[in-house]
Give the backbone structure.
Amino acid sequence: MTKRILAYIDHFQGQAVPASWEAVGAARTVADALGGEVVAVVVGQGVRELAEQAIQAGADRALLAEDAALSDFRPEAYAAPVAKAAAEAEALLLPTTGRTRELAAMVGVDLETGVIPDVVALKVEGETLLATRPIYAGKLLSKVRVPERRPQILTLRSRAFPKQEMDAGRSGEIEPLEVDLGEVPTEVLGYAEAEAGVSLSDAAVIVSGGRGVSSNPKLTPPAEIADEKEQEIWRAQQGFKLIGELAEVLGAAVGASRAAVDAGYIPYAHQVGQTGKVVSPDLYIACGISGAIQHLAGMRTSKTIVAINKDPEAPIFKLARFGVVGDLYDVVPPLMAALKERLGK
Amino acid sequence: MNIVVCVKQTPDTAATVTVEDGKVSWGDAPLVLNPWDEYAVEEALRLKEAHGGKVTAISMGPEDAREALKQSLAMGCDEAILLSDAVFAGLDTLGASKVLAAAIQHIGDVDLVFFGRSSVDSDTGITGSQVARRLGWPALSLVAKISAIDPDSRRIEVERMLEEGRQRVAGPLPAVLSVVKEINEPRYPSFMGIRKAARAEIPVWSAAEIGLTEELKAAVEWPEIFAPPKVETECEFIEGESADEIAQKLADRLMEEKVI
C-alpha cells in the first residue's frame, strides 16, 4: 500500500490558517522521501474550497468531512473523522494552533500513538520522522520521534516551514470522509471578536515594547489622572501608541515584554516570552526592552533583531544585529519617517 | 463540588537551563509549581469558595517531586496526592494521560479537572485534552473565563481563547478544563497555608494503587536534547550626531540587509 502522509487543514470559519499550507508542503517533502502520497484532510461545513486549495498547495488528493455538526470547531467532533482518516496513515501533520493541539492530542489517544507538538524542523530518517522542537520556551531544543507506533502525529510551528506556492494547474480527487459523529457533548454559543491587528504567531515583523515605554518625562498626563501608578500607565500607553504607529508602517504585529504586561501597560495577548507567545519573525524591533531571559526565550529565533535601549549593557544587545543606545522616544519618530520614505508610504 | 487540579513541578522560568551529559540541568534554580498551574489552582479554589466542596491537587513525578504539591496546598488545596512509580518514569503525554485519568477515576465522583495551559518545561500543552479523551469527558481548553457553572444542573459555560478571538462554549459536567492567564490573578500562599503545607503528609499512589496493571510505555522518544546553536551576532551599534541621523542610518542598514 502506498504510504499515506496526511496534512490537516486548520481553519477558522472556513478561513484557512496560513500555516496549513506549510503543513501540506512539509507533507509533500516527507511523502517524496518515503515514496508516498499526500492526502489533505479537511473537516467543517461548506469547506470544499479548502480541499481544492490543499491540492493546489501540493496534496495528491483530499478527504473532506462535511456536516452541520462540524460548522464550529469542537475537538470531540473533529477528532472522529481525523482519527478515521489517520488510522492507516504513516504520519499526520498539522499546523500548530490552539485547535490542532487539542485535535492532535485526542487523535493520539484514539489511535494510541505519539504526538509531537510545535515542531520547528523535520527530517526523514529511514522510515521515521525525526522532529526538532523547542523545550523550555526555546532555551533548549529536543529531537523527538515516534519510533514504532503509527501514525506519527506532528504539529508544525507557524513560519518554521517554507511557504507553499499555489499551483492552480494541479488537480486531484476530493473524496468524502464519512463518520458517525455520535453525540457531541458541547455546544458553541458564539464568538467575541479578537482585537484587530496582525497576529503575533503569523507576523513577519514584530515591534515590541517593554518597561522603557513608560519613561518619557516630556509627557504630561492629563490633570484628572492624579494617581502615580495611573500616570505611569498613561505614559506607557502613549508609548505603545508610538510603537503601534511604527508597527503600522511596517505591517507588523505589536509585542510586549512580561514586565510591560505585568505593569498593566498592554493586554496579555501581546506578551512575547516564556509565559507568552514564542515568535520567530523576520524582523523583531525591541523598544525599551532590556532582555530578561524569559523574554529572550520567546524571540531569540527571530531572523534579524533590532534593539533600541538606553542602557548599553542591556542583555538584548547580545542577540541584536543592530543596536541603538538611546531613548526610544527620540529614535522611533524619525525612524518611522525614514522607513515611510524608503517604503514609499 | 469535587475538583481535581493536575499540577507539575518545573524549574523557575528565570533559570538558565543547559544540557549536561545529554540531560537538562537548571543549576541550583528552585523547582516551583508550573506557573500556568497557579491559575488552575486559583480557579479551582475560587469555585470551591463559591460552591463548597473539595480541591485535590495531583501530580505525577518522582518521589521527591513534592514542591508543586506543597505550593498547591499552601495556596489552599485541601489535599495533595503524588503519583509515583518506577513504571511512570520517562512516560510521554500519552502515558501520563493514562496515569492521570486512572488517578482521577480512583478519586471518584469528580466534577471538574483543571490543568494549566501547558508546562513551561516540555511545552506540549496536550495532556489535558488527552486526559479528557480517556475519561470521555468534554475538553474545554484555553479557558479565559468561566461564565457560568451550575453544580445542580451539571452545566458549565466558558470562554475559550482561540487565536481568532474568544469562543463561548457550554457543556455538561464532569469536564476537563485547561486555563490561560487571563482567567484570574493567582493568590499568594498565606502564612498559615505555608505552615499547613510544610506539615502535610502527601500520600503516594503507585500504578497498582490506581488500578493500572497494563504495561506503560512512551510512544515518543527523545534521542537528543541540545542547546540552540549560538547565534553569532555581533551587534552593530548605529551611532550619529542626532536621533535623525541615527534613524536614517538604521533605515538604510535595514534596507541593505533586505529585512524590510
